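dumping this here before i forget
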Amino acid sequence: MKAITIEVPDKAAAEIDNYVRAGWFTSDAEVVRVAILDFVRRNRVELLERYMREDIAWALKQKRR
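structure:
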């Protein structure tokens, strides 16, 4: 597993602490991992489609030259 150091706004850090204290998560790191995995899962298709459209647009520009 790769370690990444991040800074979050104080308000977000307080929310993360609340989740851990309430027992929803075992650590701050777990909250961040779950949030990132959820973001990737929910946005994967949209991001792939966007990158594909950008690649196609670039290829069409190259063909027109």
